[in-house]
Amino acid sequence: MNTSPLTVLSVPHDALNFAMPAEACDCHTHVFGPSANYPLSSERNYMPGDALVPDLLALHDGLQIARVVIVHPSPYGTDNACTLDALRLLGPRGRGVAVIDAHTTDAELQAMHKVGVRGIRLNLETSGIHNSDYAATQLRWATARVAPLGWHLQMFTNLSVMASLREVINTLDTPVVFDHFCLARAELGTSQPHFDTLLALLASGRVWLKLSAPHRVAQDPDGAAMTEMARTLIAHRPDRLLWGSDWPHPGGRPGQPRHRDQVEAFNPINDGHALNRLAAWVDDAATLRQILATNPARLYDF
């Protein structure tokens, strides 16, 4: 158990108050920069600062996290160079989730696979896309592209769109992963519209859910509402749950406008505290090991 103080990118992180399972994995992180090396997309909706592989390794080594998944961030569009170079630096401890489009070739997908990519992300929420027909079309297209590689589809979307895709998902052999609690709002409780569909899809074994970035879905990530929602999910299907920090925590600040041409500060999230909160939600060493180590090993082919 680590008791040393840890500060990364000027953000302090609490020491762990539980025994971290061996081969634990942070299933949702991003790497940005160096900014001089990787051009941003002209269609980005924010400008990130640098958050480099050495910073990520300092965080994970300090928190005893042995494995990591780099999710390609939206400001780079479909230019995956920054993420792929990060995977090359990480070696066998890293896996990746890319963002592609119709111009991405099969040869490029094969090359991504060799450096550790195991899925692609559909960033619907980032682009403000809530059209169910469009989402279904994208899901079918993406499945056709990645199924031959054995990859999964990761979707950033909300409960309503997720529910509209239920029939499509039930026809797929490709695993579907929803990140950030599928944007279920903690304060609306477990009876909120479409939460029952999320539970049903988890029960079917066709989808996975990331218990990531609770600050995105709760006014108080430590509060009773967030705890109730998380524990409901954990009790329901722990073998389909993953944990991710969302480091370095992009996403803007509530009430503050976003600027494409001005560096946006990352949210100062305490990831040690987030892990301790997860351990308190679970309160069972075997289930915690399943969420932090066993499940990621299966999904990401570690």
Question: Could you name the key traits of this structure?
Answer:
302 residues; alpha/beta; eight-stranded parallel sheet; two-stranded antiparallel ribbon; 10 helices; 12 strands; 35% helix
- Count of helical segments? 10
Rg from alpha-carbon coordinates = 18 Å
Q: Using DSSP, what is the number of strands?
A: 12
Spatial strand arrangement across the major sheet: 3-5-6-7-8-9-10-11
Q: What is the H/E string?
A: EEEEHEHEHEHEHHEHEHEEHH
**Secondary structure category:** alpha/beta
Shape: globular
pLDDT averaged over residues: 94
Q: Beta-sheet strand percentage? A: 15-25%
What fraction, in percent, of the residue positions are helical? 25-40%
Distance between the termini: 24 Å
List unreliable stretches of 5+ residues. none
Largest sheet, described in full?
8 strands, parallel
What is the gist of this entry?
This protein has 302 residues and is an alpha/beta fold. The chain has helices at 53-62, 81-90, 106-115, 132-146, 159-164, 166-169, 195-204, 224-236, 271-282, 285-300, and strands at residues 6-8, 11-13, 25-29, 47-48, 67-71, 94-98, 117-122, 152-155, 176-178, 207-212, 241-244, 263-264.
Task: Describe the protein in words.
- There is one protein chain.
- By secondary structure, this protein is an alpha/beta fold.
- The protein is built from 10 helices and 12 strands.
